[in-house]
Structure formats: C-alpha cells, structure tokens
Amino acid sequence: MSTAAMPSSASDGMSYWRLVALLAAATFVMAVLSLAVGYAELDLFAALGDWIAGRQSLPALVLVELRLPRAILGALVGFSLGLAGAAMQGLLRNPLAEPGIVGISSAAAFGAVTVFYSGFAGAFALALPLGGIAGALLAVLLLFALNGRGAGTMTLILAGVAINSFAGAMTSLALNLAPNPYAALEIVFWLMGSLADRSLIHVWLVLPLVLTGWILLLSSAPALDGLTLGEDTARSLGFDLTWLRVRLIGGAALAVGSAVAVTGAIGFVGLVVPHLLRPLVGHKPGRLLLVSGFGGAILLLAADTMLRLMPIRPELKLGVVTALIGAPFLFSLIQRLRREA
User: Fold this and answer.
1) Nearest-5° angle of CA 263, CA 268, CA 274?
2) Torsion angle of C-alpha atoms 77, 83, 86, 89, degrees rounded to 10
3) Is the pTM of this model over 0.85?
4) CA–CA separation, 7 vs 286, rounded Å?
5) Which of 161, 177, 144 lies closest to 106 in space, CA to CA?
6) If both were cysteines, with which of 80, 171, 201, 261 could 129 make a disulfide (CB 3.0 to 4.6 Å apart)?
7) pLDDT tens digits for range 75-132
C-alpha cells in the first residue's frame, strides 16, 4: 500500500486498517461460503482432507475442479472491478465513472466474441480468455494513440467513448452475422457474464495479469489524493499526470480486461462499491482503492452464492444479477446528485 493512502493520524490509522482487516475477513468468509454452497451437498472438510492427502475422491474433485476455481475467480474479478472502479472515479473525478468508461470492458468482450465468431473457441481451452485479453490490450494501445502525450481528462473520456462505441458496434455486427442461431445464443450467454464451469487453468492464466494491474492501481494512491486539489496543484506537488494516466489505464486494462476475458461482462460492481465505502474512508480516493477492492470481492462472491441458492434453472447469469442490483442504485445516485446540484 502506498504511503499517501496512509491515514494522517494514529487514530485514523487504526480505524482505516481495522476497516481493511474487517473487509478482508468478510471476503474470506464469503469465499468459504462460496465453496460450501452448490447444487449438491458437499462435506467441505472431508473434501479438503482428501485433496490435501492426494486422494482422488469425488468430493475432492468437486472441490478442486468446480467450486475452488469459482470462489477464487469470484474474489479476483470482484476485487479487480471494485479497485478499478475506485481508481477511475478518482482519475476522472466523476462519481458515475467505472472501468467500462474507457472502453476496456467492451474491447475485451469484443475480443472474446471474435474468437467465438471465428470458430477458434473450440480449438483449445484458453482461446476465449486469450482473445479477451488481446482485445483489452489493443484497446489500451488505441486509447493511448488517440489520447496522445499531455492530453487532458476530457480527451481521455472522449477516446474511451469512441472505443466503447466501436467495440459495441463490432460486437453487434458479429451477432448480426452469426452463422447460425446457436452461435448467436452462445455469444449472448457469454456476454451476460458467469463464473460457472471455469477451472484452475483460467485462474493461473489471469492471476499474473490481475496482480500486475492491482500493483499499478494501488501505487497510484498518492497521485489520486493530490489530484483532488486540481490538476495544476497536483503538478505543482510533483505528480506526473501523464504517467498517472498510463499507470491507471494500464492497470485497469490488465485487471478488468483479463477478468472480462474469463467471465464475460459483469457490470455495476465498479460503480456501486466505491460509493458505498467512500464515506467510511473520509472521501479520500487513495484510501478508497484497497477497501473498494475487498468490497467488490464481497459483492461478487455474495451475488454468485445467492444465484446458486435461487430455485431457478437454468442458472441465472452473474452479470444479470449484478445489473439487477446496480441499476436501481444508479437511479438513486442520479437522483441524489440532482438534489445536491
């Protein structure tokens, strides 16, 4: 954690780290709950014992092949979305900002859809996530090319809107030209987002990219705190805003792009979580980063666990559940901002 994200007094420090510890503990509890909940009963301790002892029992296989990847990916993806949402809101100084505003999520989704459409999805197991990651990285290169060196925040937003629109249009075109209704249906279901049927291979694929993204985002905390005083003041304090944008956008691309590549599009987490936690950290964007990461992990694990408890088959898509949670929150947020204006 960066030093600027550190609280200014010892009492503030204890309160802040107590909050971080509480959220980290809640994330662990939700991950264990995610392991315990499923469509079939599972003796979690017996399965864990068999796995540690190297016994290839059915409970151990269910734990390792189905539930453990789902819980780990839920925590990784939720943390990435929450952290990137807080970082984008701090960078753009806009309470309605989220990772998708710079076009990374849409480009990653388009990359994966291209793999579906071209038929490479069945060529090997990791074709789909690799296509999504390639889409996210291309979006970042295009974003930097459009933005140019020394351009302002408004240029960044406009470039993001352009990439978003282009990726959305190309995804719609792929759906329109899908070779058959089953291919189109498969693409639509993937775009809804889900943690089902993922394996530890997906975890190992995205883990290095996600961790690199987290480091880039968390290391930007001092500059985000300085940016609250205005761009000119932040420059006078010695912060390089061009390098800050590179770190934040690159970090969001690695964390969110790789997450979208394996789960599909999952919206609203990066928008909702920072708003819920901002009052608890004194509205300081530097402090908000880490707690929003844990908050996002808790929200996504809770939503994924909840949909497995619902008596609805086939299983609801995770992106649908987060949208049902996030859309009413967005309406209430807009109303609150109008009253405050």
Assistant:
1) 115
2) -70
3) yes
4) 10
5) 161
6) 261
7) 999 999 999 999 988 888 777 777 777 788 888 888 888 887 777 766 776 777 778 8
